[in-house]
Sequence to fold (346 residues):
Amino acid sequence: MSTVAAYAAPAPKAPLERTTIERRAVSEFDVAIDIQYSGICHSDIHQVREGWSEVPFPLVPGHEIAGVVTEVGSGVTKYAVGDRVGVGCFVDSCRRCENCRKGLEQYCAEGHTATYASTDKYGETTYGGYATGIVVDENYVVRIPDALPLDVAAPLLCAGITTYSPLRHWKAGPGSKVAVLGMGGLGHVAVKIAHAMGAEVTVLSQSLRKRDDGLRLGADHYYATSDPDTFEELDGTFDIILSTVSAPLDFGAYLKLLKTDGALVNVGLPEEPISLNLFSVVMGRRTLAGSFIGGIAETQEMLDFCAEHGVGAEIETIRAEEINTAFERVLSSDVRYRFVIDAATI
Ligand SMILES: [Zn+2]
Ligand SMILES: [Zn+2]
Fold:
């Protein structure tokens, strides 16, 4: 066991405070990681506030982890001390079910072990990346290529793979027209990745406030969804619409923006059920779909792709004592575009 410094929420909705936590001893297939940067994902805030479900407290959030290996178990073959590595949204899965065997561990039939607020195979509650160190099985660790600085790589471990996986699955590339709905933590990375894949990229955002950023990050077009003309002008335009929005949407209106066989893919999760007239799906053989993070092999593929194309998150690095202020700023959309905690300040 080792003791590391961390930031934890002691109770639901309580501010995070500095504390210490225990990490398990490094066993045969584990690597110990000195965390250098940890991204703040909107879902960290949902979890601390128990917006989705009950979670165990104290809660140490963080599933966008970038750091350096400091120790490896005797059976570890993939990593060595000094390697630059990342950990994303989960740290284990059953490894036997059909999905795990296909590299779709995020859809593990037995449920994966989330990086925090989950119970691992040792019966211990998992603690996430708002900490100075973590111990993870090597099979759930990915390599961060040298070309990617660790700070801008950290958010790719959730925001990057969450958008990369559906863009690959629905075949974004040269000749395809992709719309990214929402220009926030997920959306800005989606714009960069879709552009790097060679797609023609359109941002659909509530206003034109972030238009200059969108075009700079690789968008070809930028439209305000508050303007009704947008929906007339873009009728039947897109092969893929990737929705990163978690507010309730008029799905019928967005489905009409798809071409025949187009797909509206949700990675944002509104808390309320949706209502939909199925005419908007049936007419045009359209798909209304969803996608959840990505598997380990695909996460590695995403990092290699991002390194090759110079894609990193746009970040604002903060000191650990600013975490609670950063949470407030995320909730008021006052971040361009991802907060990253400098773990040296924890
Ligand atoms: Zn996340
Ligand atoms: Zn499984």
